[in-house]
Automatic annotation (TrEMBL):
Domain of life: Bacteria
Protein name: WD40 repeat domain-containing protein
Keywords: Repeat, WD repeat
SMART domains assigned: WD40 (SM00320)
Amino acid sequence: MKLPILFKTLSLLSFFLVPPFSMMASIPVIANTLNTLANTEQPKRLKLTLSGHTEPVRALNLSPSGQVLASGSDDKTIKLWNPTTGALLRTLTGHRERIKSIVITPDDQTLISTSFDNTIKFWNTQTGKEIRTIAEKTGVRAMLLTPDGQTLISGSGDQTIKFRNLKTRKIHRILKVEATALAISRDGKTLFSGGENGGKIRVWSLVTGKQLRSFTPPLPKKEDLINGSERASAPITLAVSNDGKMLLCGGYDDSFQSGGLRSTDGKSFKAWDLKTAKLVHNFSLGTSIDALIISPDSKTFITGGLGREIILRDIKTGKPVMELTGHAGGIYGLALSSDGKTLYSGSGDKSVKVWQLES
């Protein structure tokens, strides 16, 4: 090809592939500001990736002191990490089935875990040795510690919530109610439990053991019904804001189903104002919510689920303010530092990631 013809051909190609500036000025720019923010800040946000589990990470807990990060996996092990350096401290082995939940006592000395092997195990975090095991006939579906670290509260498949004194090792209270999720107020005086009964959430006094009130999600609107029997799903996770104003609920979402296959109301996220008892939010986040936490300042909530993104949202409006991407699997565990600046996430991709939310 002659040189002048080549230049002419390249000029025509550049015109169609890269429009002149005058034409570009007239082309509307459509940008997702949330994704743009996430993409530009992603390298700064992601600080560490902790690898070592051989199966999905389902449970995550940061000790009250912030010195120990614990992860529980489908590989039946629990790993203890240095949350600052990412160094693996030790691996706890002894459960026969995948790990469901983890809590650590305020003194950092004891880790308590539940598994699908229907046991609760107590471990010494300094030695990694198992201290004792409690067998449950029907397994534990939810578990938490009171803020003072003296009482273990567990919701079992036998439709009871048990209160176990950690010093005496005795059960001193039993509530006969189903619990798929539990949450407790910052002052340790109020317990929240959610179950299968239409997604109802019950509020309990931990002083008297009596039910104070309950929150029942509204029935779906007729125009939203597919088979006519949809109801709110049982809570997978509950969270209460530190200021005591908001109760958040994450659940199963099958809104993508069609042809009468849908069983839930398709609303994976719900929130109540605890002072007015009004339902503030009731919408779908596009996926089931497996992990849900609230920032220490009670202004933001963070969710993770079958989608691979971690989304931070404004607690009042529900609108996203930040998106963290990098996991290659669903997000099943979240933990937040006490100052709200560092986030930890456990995923189906078998890893734990450490994110810097604020400098």
